[in-house]
Amino acid sequence: MNVSRRLVLKTIPLAALLGSLAACGASTSTTTLASSRALEPTDASLALDTAAWSYDSQGGVYYQMGLAYGSSIQDTAYETLSVFVPGAYVTAEDNGDGTYTLTPAEGSVGACTSANAPIVIPVNTPGYCAQSPLSEYSYSTVKAYMEAGLIYVVAGLRGKDSTSEDAAGNAPWGVTDLKAAVRYLRYNASRLPGDTEQVYVFGHSGGGAQSAVMGASGDSALYTPYLAAIGAATTDEDGSPLSDAVAGAMCWCPITSLNEANAAYEWNMGQFASSGTRATGTWTEACSKDLAAAYAQWVNSAGLTDADGNALTLERSREGVFLAGTYYEHLMGVIEGSLNGFLAVTSFPYTPSSTTMAGMELGGAPSGSAPSGGAPSKDVGALDGVDRGQTENTVLGVGSTTLHFSQVSRDVIAAGEASYASLSGWCDDYGSAGYDSDLAETDSLGTTVLTREQMYNPMYFLLAGSEGANSSTVAPSWRIRSGIGQGDTATTVEMNLALALESAGHEVDFATVWGQGHTMAELEGDAESNFISWVQQAAAR
């Protein structure tokens, strides 16, 4: 059954429709890697001890845990990793004390071999929280990956909830830790089975966002001082520069592109609401409309194009805020494709369900749930809160101090604050002066909030007209999924990410799943099996 655009628009009110939207081998560019002459050799303490493996004889899995991936890590509670390898890929010598000495050897599991097996790294950081390293072995966590012939690596990562007096967890430390883990694996490539050039990261929500950042920011010089601060591996055993670029990123409902996120949220959902912070007569209602208009300005300057190279832009509309233009039509096409795909594979009646996988828990930003009837689930200032109270204000804060980070939001406030002052709920503390002071704040390495937001924004690296374009090694393979009913961030986030990647010539498997919210949305099958299948296909290209 195929549903026409006219039927979609006729059957589903426009406001409800748009509101419901809230719902192998990476090539390494030498231009993004630091010159080997400028690099200190990797600290030899990062060499993997090949005589310290443990063995699960029942599952046939060798593993090591608690491996520090930097020579001067700042938080020992988080900055270690675990490695799990199928027994078929190694020869093992029993040391007689419960440990084994391993040597990579010829072997295969299915289509994978000890030489070409991809490495997968979960990023389970909902709300940009920290990811604790594994403290005990569980075969159920690694079973599907071992049976598929993959190498499974879990890296502890700092996050917004791990900040202490000794070690910050704000951006960009989480992705810095992830990059250091990848560099550790490549430094130890001769000691490990598998292909360390075929590294794939995967995550949901905040983890999906950090996976997207990881995929877009490979070898970015912006991360160099942060990697140096934790003693990350810099050179391989031959003295050549190491790369932290990955081969692919799997992103479910990534809460990312934070600079423009408030504006996208109000254009996508907020402009159709009339209660709460969007009630008539409130300054936030006026700000909501202004943010929606600012999103059109952002879209029209982003240089997004469709598959045929046609420019995607927004135009003023008779009703609503900029609900016309080729960008709007493209979004409607994504909606129709989502519905048609759902109808093609669904038997009625059906029961909606969410999926998860071993070691990957569902979760989004604490403030926000799936919308009901097309209503937004967050207040105006959905990601960069007007009172600095959103999760992301902590992520891009300094230590425990929450900070504004959105230049787009700042500019809207600056343009409208004189008129907002006469409306209900306004407080001078919400003015642009607060944004200006926050955006100039620096972290322990002297980096401003604006720069740190760019480091955590994949679009900074992907958009052709961006300052960060061509400054990183972008992953060649991507899989992006969103639930059309999510309310945690605008559905346009995933669509824009896919558009920017496709325009840059990267392989993108993108879909918005009808009937799903902020979850590991899949049209068919389960998230874990679909991810593994995608990795195997991407690595074989």
Protein architecture, described:
The structure is a single chain. This protein has helices at residues 5-11, 14-19, 139-147, 173-187, 206-216, 224-229, 261-268, 283-302, 326-345, 391-395, 407-420, 432-439, 449-455, 458-462, 492-503, 527-540; strands spanning 54-56, 61-68, 80-86, 90-94, 100-104, 108-109, 112-113, 119-123, 151-155, 199-204, 248-252, 477-483, 507-513. The protein has 541 residues and is of the alpha/beta class. A nine-stranded mixed β-sheet has the order 1-2-3-9-8-10-11-12-13, sandwiched between helices. Strands 4-5 form a two-stranded antiparallel ribbon. Helix 15 (492-503) links the parallel strand 12 (477-483) and strand 13 (507-513). It is globular, with a radius of gyration of 23 Å. 54% of the residues are buried. Mean pLDDT is 91; it is low at 1-37 and 363-373.
